[in-house]
Structure formats: C-alpha cells, structure tokens
Sequence to fold (151 residues):
Amino acid sequence: MSEENQERQFTIQRIYTKDVSFETPNTPEIFMQEWRPQISVNINNAVQDLGEGNIEVSLTVTVTAKVGDKTAFLVEVTQAGIFLAKGIPEEEMGPLLGIYCPNVIFPYVREVVSDLVTRGSFPQFLLAPVNFEALYAQQMQQQQEGQQPGH
Fold:
C-alpha cells in the first residue's frame, strides 16, 4: 500500500521518564545562604525512528541553580514518548515531531523537575512555558544556513 493511500494515523503510545539526575553538591551549606539563585535552563529534543511507524521523541531539560559561584542544585530529566505516525505526509512530520510531540511531553518533564527540586528542600521551581514552534523555526533556519555554500 502506498503512503498516499494509507489512512492517516497518529496516536500517543506511551509517555515515560527515561533518565533522571538530581545533584545538590553544596548542601547543607547552601541552605544557610540567602536564596537568590541564578538559574539556567537548557532544553534539547531528539527523535528516534523505532520502525513500523513508531517514533520516540525525547525532551531533555537541564536546570542549574547557582548561589554566587556555588551550585545549589543541578537537575537533568529526559522525558520521552512513543508516538505512532502512519500515513502522515513528509512535510508534516517535521513540525509534528519538533513542535507537537514536545508540547505533549513538556508538562510531564515540568512536573518531574518541580518534584525533584521540592524533594531537595528548595523553593518550588516551575519551568516557564516553552514556544516549541519558535525553537523549531530557529532549528530549521540554522539548518538552511548550514547548507548554503560559504557557511
């Protein structure tokens, strides 16, 4: 059966936590300092074809909180999902995997990060919403620039 004749099918098969790391290298001393952290957040996503229309999309979020030059906590969470995508035109797969799937996964990774920070006895931390559409557009622009001669 050709792809054009195949019925469009998209389902979420499973969402799961793939990897978790939580470090507090400067406790308990860090609790004695005034809590004015500098927080950095890094987000990456990856796509892996599992065959037969099954695709794993994973979102890795790394949050580092520093007070002065000391790390208060470092959290890294990889949350993933397996999605079944069949009969989807090629031009729609990029946005589906780069925008829609990360948007589905993000609330789960946000909850895990928040829970870990709270369990570490730090003030509540919620990841700000992420515009995956803008990130995807930025990635596409970087890829196009990288393919142009002279770059």
